[in-house]
Amino acid sequence: MSDDSFIREVDEELRSDRMKTIWKRFGKLIIAVAVLIVVGTAADRGYQYWKETQASKSGDAFLAALNLAREGETEQALEALRSLETDGYGSYSVLARLRAATVLADAGDYQAAISDFSTIGNDSGVPAAIRDAARIRAGYLLVDHGSYEDVANQVESLSGPDNAMRHSAREALGLAAWKAGEAAKANEWFGMIAGDNGVPASLMQRSEIMLDLIAASGKAAQQS
């Protein structure tokens, strides 16, 4: 036997002895850790499966409610959406609240729709972007079913230069001002839209039409 072979055999024996010693001292702990890893992995996969199942179930229920609304089955659609508001998984709960308010508006129950949108807009538990969208929806409905002050209470805080919803907020305020006979104020709001960057083309076109209408009426000059 060569010296190298002898040294390798001695090293293997030493490693074997060390493993036996480690196993005697920590064998039960090693087994426990291995079991925990297996159980933890199984639990995580089970939880992921449960989440996917719940999301799929809520998604199917949401689509079914939308179909009912499109078919004019308002009461059934609202019932399905109200159920999702309490039992929906993840974001489906708040989506159901928004859609239920839209269904009410489409059915002509404007005050109930405004109330629901306003409630969502003031709910701190709802993501900020959705709260702002709900307030915009309430503002647009209030143009025809409320006063300028009602619209301002909903959306004026969103009309600042750094707010992503500012264009829609300003349009709602401009329309409400025009309806209230405040031509100068309407001209100011629509002018802010026309002078801003990144305004959607359709909204810019509407704003320019309103500015032309206000100018043609001569009322803005009379009030200024």
Explain the overall architecture:
With 224 residues, this protein is mainly α. It folds into 2 domains: 62-146, Alpha Horseshoe (Serine Threonine Protein Phosphatase 5, Tetratricopeptide repeat), CATH 1.25.40; 148-224. Helix content is 82%, strand content 0%. It is built from 10 helices and no strands. It has helices at 3-70, 74-87, 92-106, 110-121, 128-145, 148-155, 166-179, 183-194, 201-217, 219-223. The longest helix has 68 residues, at 3-70. The radius of gyration is 32 Å and the shape is elongated. The termini are far apart. The mean pLDDT is 83.
Q: What's the helix count?
A: 10
Q: Tell me, what's the shape?
A: elongated
> In percent terms, what proportion of residues is strand?
under 5%
Q: List SSEs in N-to-C order.
A: HHHHHHHHHH
Biggest β-sheet: count, sense, barrel? none
Question: pLDDT below 50 for ≥5 consecutive residues: which ranges?
Answer: none
Q: How many distinct beta strands? A: 0
Determine the N-to-C terminus distance. Answer: 110 Å
CATH domain fold name of the largest domain: Serine Threonine Protein Phosphatase 5, Tetratricopeptide repeat
